[in-house]
Amino acid sequence: MDASVKKLSPDAARPSREEAENAVRTLLRWAGDDPAREGLLDTPKRVAKAYAELFGGYSVNVEDVLGTTFEEVGGYNDIVLVRDIPFFSHCEHHMLPVIGKAHVAYLPNGRVLGLSKIARVVDLYARRLQTQETMTAQIAESIVKYLQPRGVAVMVDAEHMCMAMRGIQKSGSTTLTTTFTGEFKDNAAEQVRFMTMVQNR
User: Fold this and answer.
1) Are residues 106 and 152 in contact, defined by beta-carbon separation less than 8 angstroms?
2) Which of 37, 67, 80, 182 measures 20 to 30 Å from 116, CA to CA?
3) 103 is annotated as contributing to ligand binding
4) Average pLDDT, the chain
């Protein structure tokens, strides 16, 4: 597991599947419903199974995703951009969904990544309890670490259900975060090029 995930302490080992299902029953009762009624009998199992999928990023090592790169680039050294990568995450404050798109670019330094790996690294970090700011930085930092490009640019645009469904209840508002490293950070013209390529439809 990569260093961005804090391991459970020895006295806080991961609960069993049965304990997780019992926790769901407790929440159902706290919400005011009866987990023994017919429609909710299988809900704890379904929720535990869904959580295993929704938070599957904790069981994936970023090195397994980004550890292999390719050196045959045919002299190409300009921006590589994968845009409109859809993702689903969960806010670490309320455990409510975050739905958005990520745009990830890098400037090669003799090596490139398989394009699907960029989407996979977005998915890896999205499938954890997150803040959007942290997720944006993690994507960039992991690509810097394993590819060592001349620069990385990441933009994440997402709607947070903790704003839409509760609290201020402003549906449709989105949050935009960016991270720039290397030449993207040092050269405003490269940032503009990235933004233009992301927005060009």
Assistant:
1) yes
2) 182
3) no
4) 92
